[in-house]
Amino acid sequence: MQGFVHFGTDGAIIKTGVSGGLVDVTVSMLDAEPPMDTSWDDINEGDLRTTEGGVYVAGGYSFENIIPGRSDGLTPQGPTAHRVRVSASGRALKYDEIGDDEKYLIEMWPTSEVAASTVVQFKSGR
Questions:
Q1: Dihedral of CA 89/6/73/120: which sign?
Q2: Taking the alpha carbons of 106, 23, 11, 68 in that order, is the dihedral positive or negative?
Q3: pTM value?
Q4: CA–CA distance, 103 with 119 (Å, rounded to integer)
Q5: Do residues 56 and 70 make contact, with C-beta atoms less than 8 angstroms apart?
Q6: pLDDT at residue 1 greater than cutoff 60
Q7: Scanning 5, 23, 48, 67, which has the fewest C-beta atoms within 10 Å of its C-beta?
Q8: End-to-end CA distance of the chain
Q9: Strand residues in the chain grouped as ranges (E)
Q10: Tens-digit pLDDT profile for residues 38-89
């Protein structure tokens, strides 16, 4: 099972269930790994290593920062390593349609260890 998040160098791509519309995204920058909240439908986790830092959230095809007031990014400039957990709900409600029912929680914390990406939970079937 591949999951709905693709982690790579300098970025991660989150595949939404909807093909268009708005999704609710909450980003939490943390000092350490948070407790696992299994009330979400789907949970993926992986490493995000950047060569220049300044991680930001982009939507659609523009790849432009969508976080108000954070043009410098969420992480320090320069090489960084973070573990990222993406939790999602509502991905199957309007799959491949226009909708606004999806919610995402992106949690990031610093890491010094390399770990494989993993699908922690996959309830939506999408």
A1: positive
A2: negative
A3: 0.88
A4: 17
A5: yes
A6: no
A7: 67
A8: 11
A9: 5-8, 11-14, 24-29, 42-50, 80-89, 103-110, 118-122
A10: 999 999 999 988 887 677 777 776 666 666 666 666 676 778 889 999 999 9
